[in-house]
């Protein structure tokens, strides 16, 4: 059985095709043109499709998806999943966060912290019993850099790439170091705090900005940019009854 999973984010669409748990093909499309997505998938014979979206799909986009993809489901807080969701307001939880948690837990089966570094940085925790306990949200790297520029009169907009001394030597490096080092210390703080409570904590990095920090964090982590897509596949497998996922 072949499954198609689609993650519609703020700036792009990511997709993958799975045969059971094996990823056979994947891709990324900038923007939200569903006709481009249908052309990308053309030629692949899939049995089921699972979509999560951080944007509100309009009627035209939804209709294109329904007409194109077999047995299409859009992930919502009412969709049965292979974990126990203990979030107090599940209807407000980003479905990409939920899918990433499921994708990580399917690999760890242990106490796991998932750090997704995109437009926002999310920190989500699931315990070894498969109970999603919740998480935190903070501004992402681009958001922090833009906020310093847009909410002040004189601070420039700084790119994340560039010289990075141990402490800022001029305004540009002061902003870059302040933002990127601040994120690193934030990440290390979350990992350290949870590690004191949960021994052998598993930590997963995902999201577009994780590459900036993967080598900087001096702790054992697993980097997986496909966590959301894998989690969506786990949900499809769970609901089809073809594979025990937990």
What does this structure look like?
The chain is of the alpha/beta class and 246 residues long. 34% of the residues lie in helices and 26% in strands. The chain is built from six helices and eleven strands. Strand 8 and strand 9 form a beta hairpin. Helix 3 packs across helix 6 (227-240) and helix 4 crosses helix 5.
- Rg: 19 Å
Distance between the termini: 19 Å
Number of strands: 11
- Give the mean pLDDT: 91
Write the layout of secondary structure elements.
Blueprint (H helix, E strand, L loop, with lengths): L1 E7 L3 E8 L2 E9 L3 H8 L6 E6 L5 H10 L3 E3 L9 E2 L9 H14 L3 E6 L2 E7 L4 E9 L1 H10 L20 H27 L4 E5 L15 E2 L3 H14 L6
Parallel strand pairs: 1-4, 4-5, 6-9, 7-10, 10-11
Antiparallel strand pairs: 1-2, 2-3, 7-8, 8-9
């Amino acid at each position: 059985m072949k499954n198609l999973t689609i993650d519609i984010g703020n700036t792009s669409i990511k997709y993958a095709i799975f045969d059971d748990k094996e990823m056979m093909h994947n891709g990324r499309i900038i923007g939200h043109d569903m006709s481009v997505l249908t052309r990308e998938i053309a030629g692949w014979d899939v049995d089921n499709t699972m979509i999560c979206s951080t944007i509100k799909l309009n009627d035209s986009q939804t209709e294109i998806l329904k007409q194109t993809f077999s047995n299409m489901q859009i992930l919502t807080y009412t969709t049965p999943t292979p974990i126990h969701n203990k979030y107090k307001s599940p209807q407000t939880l980003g479905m990409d966060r939920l899918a990433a948690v499921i994708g990580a837990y399917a690999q760890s089966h242990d106490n796991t912290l998932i750090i997704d570094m995109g437009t926002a940085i999310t920190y989500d925790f699931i315990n070894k019993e498969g109970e999603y306990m919740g998480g935190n949200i903070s501004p992402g790297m681009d958001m922090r850099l833009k906020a310093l520029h847009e909410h002040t009169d004189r601070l420039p907009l700084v790119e994340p790439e560039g010289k990075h001394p141990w402490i800022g030597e001029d305004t540009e490096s002061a902003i870059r170091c302040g933002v990127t080092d601040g994120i690193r210390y934030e990440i290390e703080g979350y990992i350290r705090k949870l590690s004191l409570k949960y021994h052998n904590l598993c930590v997963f990095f995902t999201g577009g900005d994780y590459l900036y920090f993967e080598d900087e964090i001096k702790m054992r982590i697993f980097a997986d940019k496909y966590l959301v897509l894998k989690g969506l596949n786990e949900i499809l497998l769970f609901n089809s009854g073809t594979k025990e996922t937990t």
